[in-house]
Amino acid sequence: MTSFDPINTRSLKEEFIRRFEEMILSGQISVGQKLPSERDLAKQLQVSRPIVHEGLLDLSAKGLVTMIPRRGAVVNDFRKQGSIELLLTLFTYNEGKLDRPLLESLLRMRLLFETEIARLAARNHADSDSFELKNILFEEKRDHSSRRFTEIDYRFHHRLALASGNLIYPLLMNSLKKLYTGLLYRFYQEPSVIPEVCRFHESLITAILERDEELACSLMGDLLNYASAKLIEILDKEVKPDEGG
What is the set of domains in the chain, with CATH numbers? Predict the structure, then answer.
């Protein structure tokens, strides 16, 4: 039976969650394994029972465990039952890196919903959206530092999600913000991509303001395909030095 060392930290709940995330994702705790009762976990870890309960609720929300009344928590196969919040956990667990299949899946998902965002933004945008998008474009041309441009790029895509009129798309963008900006920051470490992205954004805004749905959708697809290919190229360069070490 798996034993658990005491937790000694100020942020007890976060440490509880981090430790169990690592044990589940690494396979140290196997799929289908029933965890000890909350009372026993609290005793082994030397924390209060409410901390254990709240930590398990967080793990359950991510799909890492299922809490069964009067039976306790059982470890899930996160590939089958994980939620969108688990993406951020995987990103953190892998020290800001996603394995290639997961990264490619994420990029394909983004292509699917952001081309639809562009189409809907061209159809549904309001005057306030036009004003904000023009301001964002103005900021892009003024500041090409990688960290600042990452923030501006996120605002650009989030504003399009708001302009689409779909209530779920902005929430999805918010849920993925940490993961999205983490990848973007590494993307914008390559200075040559910024002028190209600016050109795409300018053309895309023009198409949206002219309410040309098909062109907006096509330009968004071209932008995301360009960005995806470049991002993978950049990430591959980061890996190669380690392989030769």
Answer: 12-85 (1.10.10.10), 97-244 (1.20.120.530)
Which residue's structure tokens are 């950049």?
234
Q: Provide the residue type at 9 as one letter.
A: T
* Global confidence as pTM: 0.75
- DSSP string over 40-89: HHHHHHTS-HHHHHHHHHHHHHTTSEEEETTTEEEE--HHHH--THHHHH
Query: Which residue in the block uniquely carries the two structure tokens 């973007």?
Result: 184
Query: From CA 22, how far away is CA 172, in angstroms rounded?
Result: 25
Answer for the pair 56, 65: CB distance below 8 angstroms, yes or no: yes
Environment class of residue 199 by beta-carbon count within 10 Å: exposed (0-12), middle (13-18) or buried (19+)?
exposed
pLDDT in tens, 193-204: 999 999 999 999
| pLDDT tens readout for residues 60-106 | 988 999 998 878 899 999 888 887 778 777 777 666 667 788 888 88
Question: Contact, 113 vs 166, CB < 8 A?
Answer: no
Q: Which two tokens stand for residue 47?
A: 């924390």
CB hemisphere CA count around 17 (13 angstroms):
19
Beta-carbon contacts of 83 under 8 Å, excluding residues fewer than 6 positions away, are 61, 62, 63
Task: Count CB atoms within 10 A of the CB of residue 97.
Answer: 17
Task: Please give the Cα distance from 172 to 239 (Å, whole number).
Answer: 29
